[in-house]
UniProtKB/TrEMBL annotation, chains A, B:
It is an enzyme of class 3 (hydrolase). Keywords: Carboxypeptidase, Hydrolase, Metal-binding, Metalloprotease, Protease. Broad specificity carboxypetidase that releases amino acids sequentially from the C-terminus, including neutral, aromatic, polar and basic residues. Its EC number is 3.4.17.19. Belongs to the peptidase M32 family. It catalyses: Release of a C-terminal amino acid with broad specificity, except for -Pro. This is Metal-dependent carboxypeptidase. It comes from the Bacteria.
Length: 505, 505
């Protein structure tokens, strides 16, 4: 053996650092593209992104990396590695085996396309022009099918896509879980619709000053413990969070002048993602473990903060006064009216503005369409009609334009098929984590009622955030809650919450 | 020969495209660092920048690139190349021969340091803390001396640095040119100081609303033909322009609330740089020729727009009315008073706020200090005292803090030694170009007086901008003005202008 284990480890860690550096640089370029990059520079920028992504891909799939991995995986070497290095080896092996099946040139072409497609989507959404976007959608689907062929299909072709975002997740499991959710949530929704105690929402239909909305959003982010020395808040067509490194975790939001809480809850949502990324232990910085462990766990944090905390009664008992002062004379209602008005359950067209209950139906629609695209060959040309049919069927309403229909989300434009289920998985994880937190963090809701959110952030940091990718989703759920994932926590949480709001018997 | 000339050209052009892509990505990262990147993420970002710069450096110095160059330089091949490819080969050969002398690891360390040093400089300037910055200054000088050793000194060690920014420029030439300038400008400045017709500047000492300043700056940028679909205006501690590609050329400025024109002239200055980069011919996009041909020529454009146009009487005859309306009741003077008040010649501490005449003394101080550092071994610890001594000697005034002294400029923190002379070269080029323009563009000053600046932008595009690096500085000056560089144009321009303003006999 020409090269010792220690030298191999140094080479391996250097490579991981390089890969992580490319990831960070590309993260800045994507953030920039979506927050104000000049329009005419985008085509050339896409080519540059393609070059860098291609180089990153080469570094991630180089034969020497495979050799270093094999060397470090030898039992007597692996056992001497630190916990972090062991996990790095395992994770890198998984990514490596997946990536080497994609020819670098194909991947580079795909990245260029995905970047152009996202830009085009932004235009198409603004112009309500699905026809202009469709050729990009076709190409993105085509590339994704090529990738499935190269990776090899799981139990179904779509299983292969799911595993990218939630390791181990399958169509069989999701059919079961989503089936279970639907089974219990549909009667709950019916009870809610039948309740004579419908919340008043009339006070929400006003014009709310954008600057005041922004100031209040910043106030709440500070209350959550979002660190502004390690982040910034900008605007974009579709809100997102991006963790470049724990010292630079940026979020964006979108202000609607006729809605006082849309931007706020969007900001809290992205702020939840950001708290996760800002609080990863420093030992993981510069490695590929320095990010959330899965999309589902990531979504559990955004949706925990947005819904479990941000849409709770104690949260508004503390914060409503400040909100009223932000919009003098505009919110002349009681905190109970405000709380109930912001927790209305009603079918709606836009996923990111849906209530906590029907939200899961938005996800199920997307999940079913993705299954149809990849398991049944549904065409890009047929997406708008299918979308509208399903909204009619599941939610009883039909989009009046593609902008508020099939074009509403950025995900598909960038090829993120298999991502959407993460949102409902996040709801389930969040409810399960909250159950443990309520038992362990005594007086938790009293703290929320006093505006003291930092102990919650600290609990989450200690139990979840700091580990980054050091624990898998299932390890994490087991370690935090002492049980595997169980959708019943979400059902119970929603039942309790809406029984109170709608005074269900 | 295993590989034909055509295949070699394809490989060569692909490599140039890759190098250009890294340059663009790094440009975005630097822009981001200086316009609002979160503070705590900067150390890790510097490492990422180091990795990318190292990769770019490897691509630029790889043995195969040397082989491709040799192949393309063969006479019978070279003669078949397009003008652009010929120039690409020549330019790349020059950079290649220079770069291969720097060990990649050394260069990567240097880039990390330079990035950290620039961040540290920004803090140090804010805190007036030269001592905190000095260790970085020492290291940057140390690296630069290593580079001179590796490149080999020219006639003097400092010549080697000058050549980076203005190809072919030497200490001998600059001593002569700057000597000539000083010889004629010093008596002119004395005449000005002795004139009984000193402009009134009292109306400038007010508080001017920042938002109104910004709106007016944007108005002037539009008048100049700056394309906002290919750029954006932000704020930073030190104004700069960065050409990422011709479709994305960004500028920054810095608003001073007690000065109505500082940000405006800064914006016009950076706007001049930006017009150059926005109007390079599309055939050069994605190549390393897609930028200004030298720092001196670049500065000729920023200073042409800022001084020759922006500080001219016809410019204000058109624009003063709109400026008055931007600050109601604050500028109750005649356009002649305003014009003269903005063209006061007076010794001052801050280079970027100096008048057109004494500006050259600011440059000569920096030029002499750089010569002392690299030709005489002047130490970083001694820079503040030397700086203050020279300001006393040349301008008769002494900074009261390092923040307004040696810490005022970003250049040295990032290792840009040899850059400062470009500014005065720019003044000279600008005056010489303007002389030709006045003769060729009939009624030019009448157009300025009507706010019609686009014909000027178009003339500059046709004669200068579109060529990017396709012509060398001396080729360009010869082609545009039919003469080599002659500092007498600047002297004549300044004499004419100030004889009028100060009513000199």
């Amino acid at each position: 053996m020409a090269i010792g284990a220690q030298d191999t480890l140094v080479l391996f860690r250097d490579r991981i650092n390089a890969i992580s550096s490319y990831g960070e640089a590309l993260g800045v370029l994507y953030w920039d593209l979506r927050t104000g990059a000049p329009r005419r520079g985008m085509d050339r920028r896409s080519e540059s992104i393609g070059v860098l992504s291609g180089e990153m891909f080469k570094l991630s799939t180089a034969p020497e990396l495979g050799e270093w991995l094999s060397r470090l995986e030898e039992k007597h070497t692996y056992e001497t590695l630190s916990e972090i290095d062991q996990r790095l080896v395992t994770e890198t092996r998984k990514e490596y085996d997946r990536s080497v099946r994609i020819p670098p040139k194909l991947y580079q072409e795909y990245v260029v396309l995905a970047s152009q497609s996202e830009s085009k989507w932004e235009e198409a959404k603004a112009d309500n022009d699905y026809a202009g976007f469709q050729p990009y959608m076709e190409k993105v689907i085509g590339f994704t099918n090529q990738f499935i062929d190269l990776w090899g299909a799981g139990a179904t072709r779509y299983d292969t896509l799911l595993d990218q975002y939630e390791p181990g997740m399958t169509v069989e499991e999701l059919d079961r879980v989503f089936g279970g959710l639907r089974e219990q949530l549909v009667p709950l929704a019916a009870n809610i619709a039948a309740s004579p105690h419908q919340p008043d929402t009339s006070f929400l239909s006003q014009r709310f000053d954008k600057a005041a909305q922004k100031a209040f959003s910043l106030h709440i982010l500070r209350q959550m413990g979002y660190n502004f020395e390690s982040g910034r808040l900008d605007e974009s067509a579709h809100p997102f969070a991006t963790g470049l490194n724990p010292g630079d975790v940026r979020i964006t939001t979108r202000y609607l002048e006729n809605d006082v809480t849309s931007a706020l809850f969007g900001t809290i949502h992205e702020g939840g993602h950001a708290l996760y990324e800002q609080n990863i232990m420093k030992e993981l910085v510069g490695t590929t473990l320095c990010t959330g462990t899965s999309m589902g766990i990531h979504e559990s944090q955004s949706r925990f903060w947005e819904n479990v905390i941000g849409r709770s009664r104690p949260f508004w008992e503390h914060n409503f006064d400040a909100l009223q002062k932000s919009f003098p004379g505009q919110l002349d209602v009681t905190v109970d009216q405000f709380y109930r008005g912001n927790n209305v359950v009603t079918p709606s067209l836009i996923r990111i503005e849906a209530d906590e209950l029907t939200y899961n139906l938005h996800i199920i629609i997307r999940y079913e369409m993705e299954k149809l695209i990849f398991n049944e060959g549904l065409k890009a040309a047929d997406l708008p009609a299918m979308w509208n049919d399903k909204y009619k069927e599941y939610l009883g309403i039909t989009p009046t334009s593609d902008a508020e229909g099939v074009l509403q989300d950025v995900h598909w434009s960038g090829g993120a098929f298999g991502y959407f289920p993460s949102y409902s998985l996040g709801n389930m994880y969040a409810a399960q984590f909250a159950d443990t937190m309520e038992r362990e963090l005594k007086g938790m809701w009293d703290m929320v009622g006093r505006g003291e959110l930092l102990p919650i952030k600290d609990w989450l940091t200690e139990r979840i955030y700091k580990y980054g990718k050091l624990r898998t989703p299932s390890e994490l759920v087991q370690a935090v809650t002492a049980k595997p994932l169980d959708p019943q926590y979400l059902v119970n949480y929603l039942s309790r919450k809406y029984s109170d709001i709608y005074k269900l018997s």
